[in-house]
Amino acid sequence: xxxxxxxxxxxxxxxxxxxxxxxxxxxxxxxxxxxxxxxxxxxxxxxxxxxxxxxxxxxxxxxxxxxxxxxxxxxxxxxxxxxxxxxxxxxxxxxxxxxxxxxxxxxxxxxxxxxxxxxxxxxxxxxxxxxxxxxxxxxxxxxxxxxxxxxxxxxxxxxxxxxxxxxxxxxxxxxxxxxxxxxxxxxxxxxxxxxxxxxxxxxxxxxxxxxxxxxxxxxxxxxxxxxxxxxxxxxxxxxxxxxxxxxxxxxxxxxxxxxxxxxxxxxxxxxxxxxxxx
Length: 278
What we know:
This is TetR/AcrR family transcriptional regulator C-terminal domain-containing protein. Keywords: DNA-binding, Transcription, Transcription regulation. With about 280 residues, this protein is mostly helical. Helices cover about 70% and strands about 0% of the residues. It has helices at about 20-40, 40-50, 50-55, 60-80, 90-105, 110-115, 120-140, 145-175, 195-200, 210-235, 245-265, 270-275.
C-alpha cells in the first residue's frame, strides 16, 4: 500500500525578522486583492506567513494599521501632485487639480485611505495641512489675499475630492452588485416633458456625473472666477497721458500769462485802475 504524501509545511519567517515596514507593505499588497474593507489582521498574517500575534505586537488594532498605511499613502501622494507656482498660478493649479484626480482614480486604495476613511492619524492630518499651507502661500505670492487664496484652494480641493469619491462609491457599489447604478444614470428622460435635458444628454452629457467633461467644466469655472478676483484686487494702473493732453497741459500756463497781458493792454484799463486807486 502506497504511503500518503505528507503535506509540506509553509516555512515561517524567522523570529524577529518581521518589522512594521514589512507589515505595512504586506497590508498594501493584500488590500490590492481584498480592498481596504476586506483587509483583516488574520488575513494579513496568512499573507505574510506569520502568526497574527506578531502583527498585534506592532499594531494593536486594524485602525492603527490603517493609520500607518494612510501616513505612507499621503506622503507618496503629496510628492506625486505637482506644486502650484506663483508666476503661472492658473496653469499650474489646473495641472495640480488634474493630477490629484488622476492619482486618486488610478489608486482605489489611496482613495479609500485618504478620502473615504473618516479618521486620519495626527501625522497624516499634519502632513495634509502642510500641503494646503504651501499651496495657499503660493497663491498669496501670486497676488491673492489670504482669504481669496484659501477659498480658491478649498474650492479646487472640494471639486477634486467630490468628483473622485462619487466615482469610487459608484465603483464599490458595482463590485458588490453588478446591477447597481448611480443616480445620474436613473434620470428619467422624456423629450415631451424635459426637452432641453433630452437634447443635452443626447449629445453625451450626463447630469451630475463625475466624468471628465463635468470635472473640466467645473474646474474652468473656478479658475475663471479666480482670474476675475485677482484682476479686481490688483491696484489700478495710473492713466497714461496722451500727447494731446500733455501738450495742452504744458500750454496752459502760457495761455494764462498771455490773457493777463492782453487785459493790461486793453483801452481804459489804466483809467479804471486810477479811478479805483482814488
